[in-house]
């Protein structure tokens, strides 16, 4: 999950052998999202509505926090086909950047959850 060699394997093995300290990616965090932060963290919100995503026939994997940038890209590609490559560079760049930032934030949240679970397990072991 991180960009280091073998990390994905070690996280997978950790989840198999020590499930109590392995974060569940299919569920929300077990800790308060504000825990460990001085200021308030702004909750993430969808900018695209379900109706807009239905209008563009977005697949389930495309209905993420960057859908609001994917729809203009799809529109641009449709309007400029078959030469949409350079005409839609700015829209493509904005969507790619959003997807990258979303990926990084998910990795950070996973790692935060993992470390908090490890800390909780250490505290319970000393009690």
From TrEMBL:
Accessory subunit of the mitochondrial membrane respiratory chain NADH dehydrogenase (Complex I), that is believed not to be involved in catalysis. Complex I functions in the transfer of electrons from NADH to the respiratory chain. The immediate electron acceptor for the enzyme is believed to be ubiquinone. This is NADH dehydrogenase [ubiquinone] 1 beta subcomplex subunit 7. PANTHER family: NADH DEHYDROGENASE [UBIQUINONE] 1 BETA SUBCOMPLEX SUBUNIT 7 (PTHR20900:SF0), NADH:UBIQUINONE OXIDOREDUCTASE B18-LIKE SUBUNIT (PTHR20900). Residues 100-127 form a coiled coil. Its main location: mitochondrion. The keyword Electron transport applies. The keyword Coiled coil applies. It holds the Pfam family NDUF_B7. It comes from the Eukaryota. It is a peripheral membrane protein. Keywords: Coiled coil, Disulfide bond, Electron transport, Membrane, Mitochondrion, Mitochondrion inner membrane, Respiratory chain, Transport.
